[in-house]
UniProtKB/TrEMBL annotation:
This is histidine kinase. The chain crosses the membrane at residues 20-36, 434-454. It is an enzyme of class 2 (transferase). Pfam families: HisKA_3. Signal peptide: none annotated. One of its GO terms (molecular function) is protein dimerization activity. Residues 495-549 form the Signal transduction histidine kinase subgroup 3 dimerisation and phosphoacceptor domain. The lineage of its organism: Bacteria, Pseudomonadati, Bacteroidota, Flavobacteriia, Flavobacteriales.
Length: 683
């Protein structure tokens, strides 16, 4: 049994149940929180969606009709991502109705949010679904979608949104009578908002915690929480981003109503009257009949307890008629039992029983088990005779039903939370595994890349080192070739000088002596003598000319790559007496070649000539150097027996091809047995 109701039974003048007191807060915040927003989160504060009283069928039809054309536009949209604002706006309206289009649009919006990875929008859609199923009384679905949105906010690390979500869950538990679960959720919300206390969520959570302490009859603690809520209100009341200015009067009226209730429980009825009157004054600034009905009840009861309200029933009927017009069975049942208590205090048993039965009928028809139970308890207290035995049985059955329902609700919510958290943990585990796999793959991939480049760089360095060594060796070989050529040329020059000296010093002197002696001879044939002397003079001059040319000729003073080529061709000999002919055109400059090109060209020509000597059986071999398009062309042509393709490709010319590749020269081989062979090298 509700603690507040027990208190009412102990105090004859207590006229309303604790559950009515509890839902006063829920009803008030339904209207008050519209228009409030977060400071930094991207989603709007929407505290009314869990606690808005179920609308009547005409009201729901009216809302659906007002957005009917927008609903059709949203349903027929060809680009739902582009029209997301339209769809979300329609969902915000249809969530309060029974329109089947809501579920279809919610499915479309959810699919788009997941596709576009819009987590805030997805959480908002879950909140709309919670509203929709709240109106249907499907509280397990409401709780499921709360958990879904909470998990998204946790992923986004949006503490404000998490706190708001926990507040929703706390109020849901409170409405279902799960006091402990509700208090835990509200405490979590307050904890998350300690560092950001200037917002309406924090204020309403403080008020909710005050209700918990009121249920525990800890009125001092309850008042402390109301004081803290009032301080928050004072800080945010002038900030339109936190509380809509046309709603702040309802916030303040709500706070005064709460203070009135605390004072009433303390039996300080004068203070309760003052607070209730202040609440009415604030509500009148932005009148709302639904909220006024509750504050009016506080005011009427406070006056009644002071003996200043003989028309208490008429005063309470003002509130009852408002609920009856709005077709709110829950509040009608609670207020009916409160009126019954007033009649009972006034010793009007017949009217008391009449209103208690009215409360019983309303509660039974609307399946409000708690109000039905309270009505039965009141009736039994009025008359516990055996004729009411069926009520006793019904009360026992209701207690079992309520107990079983509470247990089932707890088990169902626990299962939903477990399954939701299990899925979340599974997803986290899967994401962790995927992350590990991706990380390991990236590490392995980067390692392979590093190993590849390291190996490649190392091989390249080795190749460069080998190339440097080869270049050094080639330079040494070329230097040796030049040195050898120089030594040979020096020897030739030395021998030529020796011959020139011998001719000059020996032969010329001898001829000179012979000529001189011949001139001294007396001969009868003077003409013959003169002729011989003249011939000796010409011979002396010719030998002297040859001697000078041998000693001074510049034709043999060169020490060039061209000389090496010339000597290489001239020194070729083979058993077939092949005639080797070298032609170097005048525009060919051998010295423009690099050291590497000279060395490889020398060895290529040497290899070609060696093959001619060994295999061609040629009579003639022509070696030509000429220039075409700034390229040096070497052709070696013989009239021998040629070579077969296999020999050309695999054996004989392998070294030639390798060296041609080194200097990036183009090699072409034309060989048709027995026509001969022509090898062309383009550098």
């Amino acid at each position: 049994m509700n603690k507040l109701y027990l208190y009412a039974l102990k105090t004859p003048n207590m006229h309303f149940t604790g559950k009515l007191f509890n839902f006063l807060f829920l009803a008030l915040i339904t209207t008050l929180v519209i228009g409030c927003q977060q400071n930094k989160s991207t989603h709007q504060l929407d505290l009314d969606f869990l606690f808005k009283i179920k609308l009547s069928d005409p009201q729901q039809d009216s809302i659906a009709k007002n957005v009917e054309h927008l609903t059709q536009r949203a349903l027929t949209s060809k680009n739902t991502l582009k029209d997301r604002e339209l769809i979300d706006s329609v969902l915000d309206q249809l969530r309060w109705t029974d329109a089947k289009e809501f579920v279809t649009l919610a499915h479309i919006a959810k699919k788009d949010a997941i596709k576009s990875k819009d987590q805030n929008r997805l959480a908002s859609i879950y909140n709309d679904l919670a509203v929709y199923y709240q109106d249907k009384g499907l509280y397990d679905s409401v709780y499921y979608y709360h958990l879904q949105s909470e998990n998204i906010y946790k992923k986004l690390q949006d503490n404000y949104a998490i706190a708001e979500n926990n507040f929703y869950q706390g109020i849901l538990f409170y409405e279902l009578g799960l006091q402990i679960e509700s208090e835990v959720k509200i405490a979590k919300a307050l904890k998350l908002l300690e560092k950001k206390p200037n917002n309406p969520v924090y204020m309403l959570a403080l008020q909710t915690m005050a209700y918990h302490y009121t249920d525990q009859n800890n009125l001092d603690k309850a008042e402390q929480y109301l004081d803290r809520a009032f301080q928050v209100y004072q800080r945010i009341k002038d900030n339109p981003k936190l509380i809509a200015q046309n709603r702040k009067y309802l916030f303040l009226g709500n706070l005064y109503a709460n203070y009135s209730m605390i004072s009433y429980f303390r039996e300080d009825y004068n203070k309760a009257e003052i607070f209730a009157q202040k609440g009415i004054e604030e509500i009148q600034k932005n009148f709302n009949p639904f909220i006024f009905s509750f504050v009016n009840m506080d005011y009427q009861l406070a006056l009644y307890k002071q003996g200043n309200n003989p028309n208490i029933i008429e005063g309470l009927m003002i509130s009852y008629k408002i609920h009856d017009k709005l077709d709110y069975d829950f509040y009608k049942a609670d207020l009916s039992i409160a009126i019954a208590q007033i009649y009972q205090e006034e010793n009007q048993s017949e009217n008391a029983i009449k209103w208690a039965k009215k409360s019983y009928d309303i509660a039974k028809k609307a399946n409000l088990n708690l109000q039905q139970k309270q009505a039965i308890e009141f009736l039994l207290l009025q008359d516990s005779s055996s004729k009411n035995y069926h009520l006793i049985e019904e009360l026992i059955q209701l207690n079992k039903v309520l107990h079983q329902r509470e247990k089932q609700t707890q088990e169902k919510f626990t299962k939903i939370e477990y399954e939701t958290l299990y899925i979340v943990n599974e997803n986290k585990s899967l994401r962790f595994k995927i992350t590990v796999i991706i990380t390991v793959s990236i590490v392995v991939f980067l390692s392979l890349i590093f190993l590849f480049f390291y190996t490649r760089t190392k091989a390249k360095n080795i190749a460069l080192k080998n190339l440097a060594i080869k270049k050094s060796i080639d330079e040494k070989i070329l230097n040796l070739l030049f040195l050898n050529n120089k030594l040979q040329q020096s020897s030739i020059n030395s021998e030529r000088n020796r011959i020139a000296n011998d001719l000059h010093d020996g032969v010329i002197n001898s001829i000179f002596t012979l000529r001189f002696n011949l001139q001294q001879l007396q001969s009868d044939n003077q003409q013959l003598q003169d002729s011989l002397v003249g011939e000796l003079q010409r011979l002396e001059a010719k030998i002297r000319e040859i001697s000078h040319e041998l000693a001074n000729s510049s034709a043999f003073n060169k020490n060039s790559f061209e000389e090496l080529i010339t000597q290489l061709v001239k020194q070729q000999k083979n058993p077939y007496n092949t005639k080797f002919t070298l032609t170097i055109e005048s525009d060919v400059c051998m010295e423009s070649l690099s050291v590497e090109e000279k060395i490889n060209l020398y060895y290529i020509l040497n290899e070609i000539l060696d093959n001619v000597n060994k295999h061609s059986q040629a009579i003639n071999c022509l070696v030509n150097f000429y220039i075409i398009d700034n390229q040096l062309i070497l052709t070696v042509t013989d009239d021998g027996i040629g070579m077969d393709k296999e020999q050309s490709r695999e054996q004989t010319l392998k070294h030639i091809k390798d060296r041609a590749n080194i200097i990036q020269a183009k090699l072409n081989i034309e060989s048709n047995n027995p026509v001969g062979t022509k090898i062309t090298l383009e550098i």
